[in-house]
């Protein structure tokens, strides 16, 4: 008699959950955001186009790697972060790892990491993720050092290695450039802001997300 051992359904489910955890990483992202899925989401007219663009982005991994990342922007509370969290879940079916980072808290952590010597390790995680999702970019307290040495280093590496980056923001690209031109000490450095934006503008498809503020519902 030929006996074969096969994993039970519970074991298969455990292995699938472990695989998901290995592929999806997050930093300062609420659990309900990183566990969001597209089938739980309302596809209203304000965000249907953005959801379709995100799903198309993920599906491109079936035959290679997307040529561009995505820039999701729009008013507060319309679901940009939730769409990005659902993207991380959707990427799992293609075996693609992602790292979703809440930018304002990441910036605060980087400033504090100057003392403990952990900056390089933290930067490498963002540089090397197959898909990096930078959530709420433009809401951080900007300094020339953060802009040039942190964001600049991350985006330069990803540009050279052709690794797609996804952003969510309340700011359009022009507004983000203006934000990065101003430092916390009141200086204005338009040329340096433009240099950073040259690592973003050509490498993203821009998607506007609209609708009611769901945080108030």
What features would you describe in this structure?
Helix 6 packs across helix 7 and helix 8 crosses helix 9. This protein is an alpha/beta fold. The model has no long low-confidence stretch (mean pLDDT 89). The longest helix has 18 residues. Strands 1-3-4-5-2-6 form a six-stranded parallel β-sheet, with helices on both faces. The protein has nine helices and six strands, in the order αβααβαβααβαβααβ.
Briefly, what is this?
With 217 residues, the protein is of the alpha/beta class.
Key terms:
13% strand, 9 helices, alpha/beta, 217 residues
Structural class by SSE content: alpha/beta
- Radius of gyration over C-alpha positions, nearest whole angstrom: 19 Å
What level of helicity do the residues show?
40-55%
Number of strands: 6
Q: Element order, helices and strands?
A: HEHHEHEHHEHEHHE
What fraction of the residues are assigned to beta strands by DSSP?
A: 5-15%
Bulk shape: globular
Gap between N and C termini, in Å? 62 Å
Average pLDDT, to the nearest integer?
89
Low-confidence stretches: none
Strand line-up of the largest beta sheet: 1-3-4-5-2-6
Work out the oligomeric state of the chains in this entry.
Answer: single chain
How would you sum up the major sheet? 6 strands, parallel
Number of helices: 9
